[in-house]
Specification:
The chain has 336 residues and is of the alpha+beta class. The strands form two sheets. An eight-stranded mixed β-sheet has the order 2-3-11-8-13-6-5-4. A hairpin with a 4-residue loop joins β9 and β10. α3 crosses α6.
């Protein structure tokens, strides 16, 4: 079997995204996006409660690619503090935020720091995205200290709030791994070895009101599929639009109280031999005021070799993809 070609994959995703007709999204119906309640399982730890939640997740992974997560145990205080920290950071003058500009030549770690409005990356597109963001990440050998931070007197309390929310999200994501394993007919501890040092990214995003000159083809974040294992999204208002495979229609995802919107990404889709959907989506600001969101992008250890899951292939359904790691999927050469 051939090796994973990251550049070819990127070209494929760009071509697909450019071909999507994103006109005329409609509100979601009540049954469009399943709700997965992990509260009973988290409270009891019983296998029967895990199986019940996994059954709902299995349906969501195989037919929708998105679900609403409730019963997750993240406090309303933690959610409020994360959104308030996002608002406070983006309220700073642009010239201050640009001191920690993402991918500046004098910073050794890429993909962290401030991403201004109009950038054509994450996802990479021909037109600039109508959002600004602060990004941080963790990986083996990359700690909080390796990220870019403004001085404490420029953004009082921001680093502490961002780090605390990141820790909360990592703990929740790890706690959900048995749910994904059982949903894919694996033993609950199947993913443990793959996530000893998970790679994650936290993006604290501001969507300003769309300027009138933006036009119909402008996006807060352009249409794409995530490259993740899964993504946990916190948002303070509607704006996420996903493509419903069942309805063959773009739908506006609702925002439920005390929930996260969760979606699978390309890594889980390929790891599962296309059993799991990696659903196309985009984001805009649907209100006349600013909108804020905080997605947490969660992945296996970046150099872990992902071989087709044993429950996702057979003689009649052989593996479609070579064994690959996150690094290989992004074109990172081992040892660099």
């Amino acid at each position: 079997m051939s090796t994973f070609d990251a550049e070819a994959k990127e070209r494929e995703l760009l071509a697909e995204a450019n071909s999507w007709d994103t006109s005329s999204p409609v509100p979601a119906r009540e049954d469009d996006i399943p709700t997965v309640d992990v509260g009973p399982w988290f409270a009891s730890g019983d296998r029967s409660d895990l199986d019940a939640a996994a059954s709902v997740l299995r349906n969501a992974l195989e037919t929708v690619g998105f679900h609403q997560l409730v019963g997750h145990g993240v406090s309303s205080t933690a959610v409020a503090e994360a959104l308030n920290a996002t608002r406070s950071f983006h309220a700073l003058p642009v010239e201050i935020k640009r001191q920690i500009l993402m991918d500046r030549p004098d910073w050794p770690i890429g993909g962290v720091g401030y991403l201004p409005v109009g950038e054509r990356k994450l996802p990479r597109r021909a037109k600039g995205n109508l959002n600004e963001a602060f990004l941080m990440k963790s990986d083996r050998g990359i700690s909080f200290d390796d990220n870019q931070w403004l001085p404490e007197n420029a953004a009082p309390g921001f680093r502490d709030s961002a780090e605390q929310y990141a820790r909360t999200m990592e703990a929740l994501a790890l706690r959900l791994l048995p749910l994904y394993a059982v949903a894919l007919d694996l033993e609950p501890d199947f993913f443990d070895d793959a996530f000893h040092h998970p790679l994650w990214r936290l993006r604290m995003t501001h969507y300003p009101p769309d300027p009138p000159e933006a036009g119909d083809e402008a996006f807060g974040i352009a249409p794409h599929v995530d490259t993740t294992f899964f993504t946990l999204l916190l948002t303070d208002g509607p704006g996420l639009v996903i493509f419903s495979q069942e309805r063959q229609q773009w739908i506006v995802a609702p925002v439920l109280e005390d929930s996260f919107i969760v979606n699978a990404g390309e890594l889980l889709r390929q790891w599962s031999n296309d059993r799991v959907l990696s659903t196309r989506h985009f984001a805009n600001n649907l209100s006349p005021t600013s909108r804020y969101s905080v997605p947490f992008f969660f992945n296996a250890t970046s150099d872990f070799p992902m071989t087709c899951l044993p429950t996702c292939h057979s003689v009649d359904n052989p593996p479609k993809y070579p064994t690959f790691s996150y690094n290989e999927s992004q074109g990172v050469v081992q040892g660099e």
